[in-house]
């Protein structure tokens, strides 16, 4: 194997690693993936906005279309949405594989390969472990697209526990359910999830994904929810689990460039703090990352040129993430009672129409900010 021929090595063959790879148009790129197949194990609810689907390059794998949501607090439910299709549900295994096949026109893949950083004389190199054999290589650029726990990010000192909150998740795919396929259910109920929320996402054909994200043991919390929440009991009363997955969600970001190492996607914390969605932001940033790396290599620029990636991606989505982080701080302090009052306020003050008109799942902070500012009557000010 001639691994030194690659100018760029991307660690992580998830969708964002692949889109980064295909965006580096003029250089040799290798993607290494520790698993034996692209797209597994699943760690995603697969709900993607229209804009997100476009940004991902209209991949295969769509299984359902969504018109809106039931937002449930402890004692109040608000129904948002109308006739308009607002989001799509994807089979991530199919989607990820399709994106990888597309990327393979431009990049090479090496599966069953674990990548880790080696530091030598202030330079970052890579050790690749492929089927028990180790290879040391020195690509000009190393990209960590290695997900929420990014070992690449940690080993170069970009990611640590202070600049990133990590939440756990547990999700089941269940069949034989009793659900309206057009609407997702979101449960904001601190009795089940103190720091995030629970979802039921219809996949069509009597299938749903039901998942919970929080700190601690999410498996037990999800079982508690399925067995005890009245709406969940109704939807899932005859249901059987056909798939089980656990995952991690990064909340917050840090610096994403150090010497010849860049981070992208979940590894970079390019995730919406209010919903955990990372595919749209990740795909956007992957293209910026690929373009900057391409320019850096084509023009033999100084290493500092790579820092433009960070400037550009923050310009695109940094403000939205910052706002999301602020709103999350408020959410963490709210009790079930206060969340109920807020939802009642939305229901009774014409805000549902406002949300239907202006709601954007890729920029949720605009609408949440508007709702909060109305609710708190101007006491809260956001940037
Ligand atoms: C429960 C849950 C639900 C979610 N739901 C949604 C949703 O509905 N919509 C949405 O937009 N987003 C959602 N997300 C977020 C979304 O899944 C991520 O943002 C997206 O997968 C990020 O893609 P990525 O390529 O950056 O990372 P990943 O998809 O995590 O891919 C990283 C890849 O790197 C590989 N890897 C890691 N370390 C190494 C190593 N050292 N060497 C080699 N390979 C390595 C891994 O095996 C993996 O294949 C959800 C996340 C969770 C946890």
TrEMBL record:
Pfam families: FAD_binding_3. InterPro entries: FAD-bd, FAD/NAD-bd_sf, Geranylgeranyl_Rdtase_fam, Geranylgeranyl_reductase. Residues 5-297 form the FAD-binding domain. SUPFAM superfamilies: FAD/NAD(P)-binding domain (SSF51905). GO terms for molecular function: FAD binding; oxidoreductase activity, acting on the CH-CH group of donors, NAD or NADP as acceptor. PANTHER family: DIGERANYLGERANYLGLYCEROPHOSPHOLIPID REDUCTASE, GERANYLGERANYL DIPHOSPHATE REDUCTASE. This is Geranylgeranyl reductase. The lineage of its organism: Archaea, Methanobacteriati, Methanobacteriota, Methanomada group, Methanococci.
